[in-house]
Amino acid sequence: MAKQKGKGSSLWQEFSKGIVKQNPVLRLVLGTCPTLAITTAASNAIGMGIAATLVLVCSNAAISALRHVIPDKVRIPSYITIVAGFVTVVQMLVKAFAPQLDTSLGIYLPLIVVNCIILGRAEMFANKNPVLPSVLDGLGMGVGFTAALLLMGSIRELLGSGTWFGMTVTANLFDPMLIFILPPGGFFVFGLLVALANKLSNTDGTKQVAGCAGCPMNATCSKATGVEAVSCADCGSGSAAKIPASASAGEQKEGDGQ
Amino acid sequence: MIKSLVAVFLAAILTENYVLSKFLGICPFLGVSKKLNTAFGMSTAVTLVMVLATAVTWPIYTYILVPNRMEYLETIVFILIIAALVQLVEFILHRYVPALYHALGIYLPLITTNCAVLGVTMLVIQKGEMYASFGYVHALVNALGSGIGYMLAMVLFAGVRGRLETCDIPKSLRGLPITLIAASLLAVSFFGFAGVVDGLLPGALF
Q1: Fewer CB near the terminus (10 Å): N or C of chain A?
Q2: How many domains does the structure of chain A reveal?
Q3: Do A34 and A48 form a contact (C-beta atoms < 8 A)?
Q4: How confident is the model at residue A258 (pLDDT cuts 50, 70, 90)?
Q5: What does the pLDDT look like over A121-152, one tens digit per residue?
Q6: Partner-chain contact A210 B113, CB within 8 Å
Q7: What is the per-residue pLDDT across A184-232, written as a single tens digit (0 to 9) for each?
Q8: Is B206 within the bounds of a domain?
Q9: B155 assigned to some structural domain
Q10: How far apart, in whole angstroms, are the C-alpha atoms of residue A222 and residue A228?
Q11: CA–CA gap between residue B13 and residue B11 (Å, rounded)
C-alpha cells in the first residue's frame, strides 16, 4: 500500500485512516457500549475520548514493543493484562486531577479494559507492526473515537438538555427533549449516525455486524456461530466487505512483511 | 431480607437492564440476537459466568483488597479473575458435562471481553459500598437478575429482528441502523417498568 509513497506519507496514513475511513465507532462499529452510555453530554464525551486514547496509545506501544516476546497462544490474556494496567493508571490520574469526570463516567472508565477498539487494534495492528506506526495508529483511532463521541455527545446534549458543554444554547428555540439523554435516545441517535455514515460511504448495512470486523474475538466468534450459521458467520466475509478493501488488505500485507 | 432480595432481583431485570439501560454487552447483543437459539445460548452462558464471577470477586475484594488498601487494583484483578474463571468453566464443562459444553462452550471464550460481566462485578461492589444492607447474597441475586435481564432483552430482541428481516426498509437504514432504532423503541418500553418495581416494593431495601 505504502511502498510507492514516501515513509512520511505512510505514517500519516496510519494516523489518518482511523479518523474518517476506518472510524472505529461509525465505520467499524466498535466500542458501542461507552459510545451509547456516556454521550449524554459533550464534556463526558471528550473526557472518555481522551482517557481511551491515552490507554490505546500506551497499550499499542507496549504490545508492539513486546510483539516478539508474547507467546501466540496466551496473547489475548497478555493484552488484557497490559491494557488493564494502563487503565488503572488512567483511572488514578482521572480520580486525582478530574474527580468530577470520574463521577460522571463512573463504571465506564474502568470498563475501557474491555473496549473492543483497544483489544481490536492490538490484535489487528500492534502485534504485527513496529512501535511508531502502532502509536500513530492508536492515536488516529483515538482521535476518531473522540470525534465520534463528541459528535454524538453534542447532538444528545443539544437536543436533550438544550446546552453544549454546559452553556445554554437552545433556550429560546425549543424545549429540551429529555428522551435524548435517556438510554433510548442513545440507541436512536447512534442508529441514525450509522445510517448517515453508511449513506455517505455507500455501504450496504446488511453486511454490517456490530463490532465483528475489528473485534479481537472475531476468529473465535465466526468459528462459534459458524456451527449454527448465524450472524457472526458474516464476521469474516462481512469485515472484508465493510472496511474499505484496500485498507484492510494493505494492513494485512504490511503485517506479513514484517 | 426476602423482600429486599426480590426488589434487587426485579430491579436488576427490569429497571437496571444491562443492555437497555446500562448499555453493557451491546456487541454480543447486536451480534448474536438474530436467531432465538443463539441468543438464548449466549445469554445463558453470560448469566452463568456473571453469577460465578460475582461469587468469586466479591469475597476477594472485601477480604483481600480492602484490608490491604489495594482497592485501586480492582480493575486488573477482576478482569484476570474473569478470564481465568471462563477458562476454568470451559475445562470443567468439557470434562464433566459434555452436553452442556456443546450447548454453551462455543460462547464462553467470547465472554471474557464482554463488558456486562466485568460491569456486574464492579457495580455490585459499588452498591455494597453505598448501602450497608447490601451483602454477599444481594450481590449474587443482583448478578443472577442481571443475567436474566440480559437474556430477556436478547430473546425479546431476537423476535423483533426476525420480523425486521421481512420488512421493506430504506436502503441506508438497513441492517445495523434499523436494529439500533428498534433497540431504542424496546428501551422506551422498558421505562414502563420503572414505576412498577418502585411501586411494588417501596423502600424495601434501603
Answers
A1: C
A2: 1
A3: yes
A4: very low
A5: 888 888 888 999 999 999 999 999 999 999 99
A6: no
A7: 899 999 999 988 888 887 766 565 555 555 566 666 666 555 433 333 3
A8: no
A9: yes
A10: 10
A11: 5
pLDDT tens profile A147-167: 999 999 999 998 888 888 878
Q: Which residues on adjacent β-strands are paired with residue A163? A: A168
Are B82 and B112 within 8 A, CB to CB? yes
Query: Does A25 reach chain B within 8 Å, measured CB to CB?
Result: no
How many CB pairs (< 8 A) connect A and B? 175
Please list the residues that pair with A167 across neighbouring strands. A164
**What's residue A6's pLDDT?**
60
Q: Please, are residues A140 and A17 in contact by the beta-carbon 8 Å criterion? A: yes
Q: How many domains does chain B have?
A: 1
Q: How far apart are CA B122 and CA B125, in angstroms?
A: 5
User: How far apart are the C-alpha atoms of A25 and A36, rounded to whole Å?
Assistant: 10
User: Across the interface, which of B22, B31, B75 has its CB nearest the CB of A110?
Assistant: B75
pLDDT at position B205 is 52
What residue numbers bound the domain in which A161 lies? 7-202
SS3 percent helix, strand, coil of chain B, rounded to 5, is: 80, 0, 20
Q: For chain A, how many residues are written?
A: 258
Instruction: Report the amino acid identity of residue B128.
Output: G
- Summarize pLDDT for B81-117 with one digit per residue, the tens: 998 888 888 888 888 888 878 877 777 777 777 788 9
B194 touches chain A (CB under 8 A): no
3-state secondary structure of A168: strand
Q: How many CB atoms lie within 10 A of CB A89?
A: 14
> Which of A77, A188, A232 is nearest residue B181 as measured by Cβ atoms?
A188
Report the residue of chain B nearest A109, measured CA to CA.
B75
Does a structural domain hold residue A72?
Answer: yes
- What average pLDDT does this structure show over B124-141? 87
Residue A168 burial class via C-beta count within 10 angstroms: exposed 0-12, middle 13-18, buried 19 and up: exposed
* Inside any domain, residue A149: yes
Residue A56 located in a structural domain: yes
Residue A36 main-chain phi, psi, to 5 deg: -75, -35
Cell numbers for A174: 425549543
Of A21, A224, A252, A258, the closest CA to residue A124 belongs to: A252
Q: Which domain holds residue B163?
A: 2-200
If contacts are CB pairs under 8 Å, which of residues 158-197 in chain A contact chain B? 179, 182-188, 190-192, 194-196
User: For residues B143 and B89, which has the higher predicted lDDT (pLDDT)?
Assistant: B143
Q: Which amino acid is at A225?
A: T
